[in-house]
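Structure tokens please, single chain.
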Amino acid sequence: MNERFSVKLNREFSRAFKKGTRKGGRYLLISAVRNRRELSRLGISVGKKFGNSVQRSRFKRLVREVFRELRPEIDGSYDIIVAARPSKRIAVKPSRKLRAEYIPNYNEIRTEMVKSFEILGLIRREATTDINEKNNEGNQ
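Here you go.
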């Protein structure tokens, strides 16, 4: 993702969490606040409780891809922060570190982001049906 589409600074994350509207789901907590730029930006927060670095990186790649797909449908310009919610964690062996038991796949993340964006008023319902139709055409 291009640097200009990313929320990087701590103060920008803090602003989104303090002043923004929030929607929590099973896998994600999304916070959005209007910005003064001409485009919407994405910030991703994934803690170590979510899993090891491979699992965290995969989750971030999936969220970025869903956001890239949804960005044209967003009305206005927002700073959108997506925070991962850890699932149940288990240790393979007692001597090993905890790992996330389940990492959501692309469709689960996409479905949850679309629903959250609709509830937060970032995208219109008509836009999501257009996105779903495009997705179904690509799958056939």
